[in-house]
Amino acid sequence: MAEKEEARVGVFICHCGTNIAGSIDIMDAVEYAKTIPNVAYADQYQYMCSTPGQGKIVEAIKEHNLTGIVVAACSPRLHEPTFRVATKEGGLNPFRFEMANIREQNSWVHMHDKESATAKAKDAIKIAVAKAALLEDLIPKSVPVEHAALVVGAGVGGIQASLDLASAGIKTYLIEKWPTVGGRMSQLDKTFPTLDCSQCILTPKMVDVGRHPNIELMTYCEIEKVEGYIGNFDITIRKKARGVLSPDEATARGIVGGGCNGCGDCAEVCPVIKPNPFEMGMAPRKAIYIYHAQVMPLLYTVDFDACVKCGLCVDACGDKKAIDLEMEDEFITLKIGTAIIATGYNLMPIENKREWGYKQFDNVITGLEFERLICASGPTGGHLIRPSDGETPKSVGFILCAGSRDNTGNGKPYCSRFCCMYSLKHAHQIMEKIPGTKVYLFYMDIRSFGKMYEEFYYRIQSEGAKFIRGRVANVLEDPQTRNLYVRAEDTLLGRPVEVECDLVVLAAAVQPVDEEDVIRKHFGVSKSQDGWMLEAHPKLNPCGTTTAGVFLAGVCQGPKDIPDTVAQAEGAASAASIPIHIGQVELEPYFAQCMEELCAGCGMCIDLCPYQALALVDRSDGSGRKVMSVTEAKCKGCGTCGGFCPGGAIKMQHFTSPQIHAQIDAFLCGGEQ
Fold first, then answer.
1. Do the beta carbons of residue 302 and residue 329 sit within 8 Å?
2. Is 85 within 8 Å of 48 (Cβ atoms)?
3. What digits encode the pLDDT tens for the residues 297-328?
4. pLDDT value at position 673?
5. Tens of pLDDT along 223-241?
6. Which domains does the chain have, with CATH numbers?
């Protein structure tokens, strides 16, 4: 753009059906736009994002020799890329475009005051024109992309994403903090609504990730540090000391034919007994252990927090020499192009809801504890018993929404989605395994949202489960019989009820894993008000994040069942593979620039940058003085550095100080131009 070039801005106002036109006088806004300085053309259309609407922009640029475009419509988050393309097709640089949001920020919130909404729309258009008149040509930059991907979390979502990436020919690192893959799904007995065996479905996939040539499985590892940007991430992995060598590790140490073969001789002689977290603490494990028989990889792990280093396991291992009690953590750096976070979920600490008696009464358990008790590979061999006395329960109560949809201080305001369905599944399993058992489900609303879910709900009704609609007030215990009394309101009958149960199962709310905040901050991912990782767009980009090259899969993004988790994992894998296969990625040119002649080299901006995009380097004139330099691929154009710089040495492209000042002046000048 020549320095003296006259600004000629085109303004296009969208009706968006009645979303905008129902609250704003479009024709009045168009006529007003024609009076704004630097506006050479103004028009309107029913749907500006449609092909005819974009065609209007292309034709107007050519016919009226426009130098900038303003579209007054919806959120730029939704359609800015669309209108950039139209601007480019008209012959302008695509960044000579500005959007005025007159839908989300105006018509939708002022629908009952058309006069005021129209006046506000005029202001928004005037402000956008002021900036568009000063926009400059910007050129996106491209960076190469490493032909490798990282998946954090090896539950069913992480497994599926890894297999998809690897099958697309991409080197994939699958990181799991626990000693085995499988996640929460490996703890389940059956899956709803088909009642397939969970391990029968999952174990083949667990085996596949262990033997796929493009997958490097890194269990018992954690993310220590993340540096870099899309296409060029440097990931530091903490490989925790396992205390046990794999056959490959033994070979690398020169131990021929050595390494762990999963025989279990070491665990048999170990004198230390600990609760097994995989069995929800209802079964023991040793200080050297595997969680269950289907672990992948089949390697024992030493719990160094519990190990007394007596050496009995070393003697039992013999010639395999697989145990190293002096092993220490290692740090490994990986170079990757894109990453997928699939860290799953935890149950909320339901013991905080003291009215239901969890951890006060032995016979109040959670849904996951029920899964382990009913599972054939669980601590009781699939025999459902009361924890207090080992007796078979003859009446079982299920409390749904235990902590979910609860706006009190120690509850969760959101629906955990899959609790209704797994409680229905549990009811079926009890009635199937223990004929004659009375089953009561205390519910607020049954949310059977998926394919064949509603039919499954009707099936459980027909099998004899009793449904009581109403919140449970409290659960009390008879200290003699250890039976439980569930007190609730039956809203359908309009009266309180009290039901005696041998066992009570809580469908506890789910929440993000404890480490999620750490991982989220490593990758620069935002979180929602509920604590879940925040997607780039809830509808149009549910797998992406605001950090380019980082994607989400599974429950870390919000509660979802297994089919939805797998579907999102496949979507995330597809999105993560695109820049890798292209080989390079184009970055939006909204990055900071340092004007060397103004920079004092104070370095105060460096620590302020949330993306670690700034550094001090020698000036280009060879004077030896330091100036700030921007790693453009890391910079997100947030403006923190530019807003702080005391010397005004930092220019924020597309958001320059003159552009922002012009917008402020346009708003404050008052009245129509």
1. no
2. no
3. 999 999 999 999 999 999 999 999 999 999 99
4. 40
5. 999 998 899 999 999 999 9
6. 9-138 (3.40.50), 148-240+331-344+513-584 (3.50.50.60), 247-327 (no CATH), 347-511 (3.50.50.60), 592-653 (3.30.70.3270)
